[in-house]
Amino acid sequence: MTWCIAGHGKVATALAHRLRARGGSFQHVSARAWSEGIDLPSANSRALFLALPDDALAAAAEALVAHHPTYPVFHCSGATPLSALASVPLSGVWYPMQSFRSPDVPWGQFRIFWENDTLASTLNDWHQALGIPVPGEWATSEQRGAYHLGAVWANNFPNHLAALFQTYQAQTGVTGLEAMFLESVQNALLGDAKTLQTGPALRGDQATMERHLRELPEELRDLYLALSESIQRFHASQS
Hints:
Number of strands: 7
Strand content: 5-15%
Oligomer: single chain
Strand order of the largest sheet: 2-1-3-4-5-6-7
Number of helices: 8
Radius of gyration: 23 Å
Helix content: 40-55%
CATH superfamily of the largest domain: NAD(P)-binding Rossmann-like Domain
Shape: elongated
Distance between the termini: 61 Å
């Protein structure tokens, strides 16, 4: 029996890369034409992993069911509930909480969430095929969704703020603030971040904020204002 991966995005590519490197038997398919019976998973699949965009999962599952799959089907989404695969007789979730920027990721060093403990043996075999020494963590769709949202706060938003900071430096010629940026993040995570807040928004220094808004590149003004107002609301609610 062989594993099957559906999709050609970053997660699917990383999974195929990993299995290939370990000499594992797998099939890599596209789900786009399943309704027409094209590029379907092998009937002898050990399990199918849907590494597809979240909004494509339910439709892919429904197209697959018309061909009567007898193997377990898992989706790899953090935000999508298991119910998206309700039409599939044997379904579960395998969600790696990791940013897949390249096919090479540190397998075994990030958390992986599972759902549907009746398929535990399949998922344990899957981890063995991937060479992951530890099992996943069982979580409900609601718990997994909370972790996914937390990962957005921990990864996506800070990265975007860093990108905007770099853009600001490039546009204004300001340099040498990287150490301050890094120290601020480290201190905030190691302590109570709300007690470390400083700046014109906290002080209610409207004149300075208005001057900043005039001086900022136009594409950064809305975010500066939104963040400043958020600081003020947050600290007003804490007092």
